[in-house]
Amino acid sequence: MIGSIRGQITSKTPPQLSVEVGGIGYELEAPMSTFFLLPAVGTEVRLLTHLVVREDAHILYAFATEDERRLFRSLIKVSGVGPKIALALLSGINVEAFALCVQNEDIAALTRVPGIGRKTAERLVVEMRDRIAPPSSPAVAAAAGPPGANPEAEAFGALVALGYRPAEATRLLKAAGPGTHSTEELIRRALQGAL
């Protein structure tokens, strides 16, 4: 898997861009949210990537932030949502607004994104509900401070990396008990509570 790419932008034609790395030109597809953050052609850039292998093509998708890539990866796991629809969603709505739409079950806002019909929007709300971190969860706190400043946020990230859904990780951390604990202690207590 190609996790990231760093090189010189040689062309930008949304949704495609080309980045030259060590004499090799990579063609990538990116959402508009990423295009808005790209520097000028000829400038060096670092992008996070996700490789989709199909029978007829290998397509490399590029993202400016980890949140965008994480949401893209969650979206393509939803039944009936492929990379093109996921890219359209990320181009039409930012990560935070998407999370609010899912939390508030705002089908109308999702259907305003080109290519998203009512049935797809309803499926997204149902299937993404447990995959999106609620605004009051430690994941939001993680964005507020530097690493090491918030043990709860680090423990939350570790639990999600272990495969727990954001809602489950939040529940396990709450069950771990109040008090000041290190990241390791919080993870240990949360995992014990999961058994």
Give a concise summary:
By secondary structure, the chain is of the alpha+beta class. It is 46% helix and 19% strand.
Explain what the structure shows.
The protein is an alpha+beta fold and 195 residues long. It has 3 domains: 60 residues, Nucleic acid-binding proteins (OB fold (Dihydrolipoamide Acetyltransferase, E2P)), CATH 2.40.50; 63 residues, Orthogonal Bundle (DNA polymerase, domain 1), CATH 1.10.150; 57 residues, Orthogonal Bundle (Helicase, Ruva Protein, domain 3), CATH 1.10.8.10. Helices cover 46% and strands 19% of the residues. The chain has 10 helices and 5 strands. The protein has a 5-stranded mixed barrel with strand order 1-2-3-5-4. The longest helix is centred in the last third of the chain and has 12 residues. It is globular and about 50 Å long. The two termini are 32 Å apart. 28% of the residues are buried.
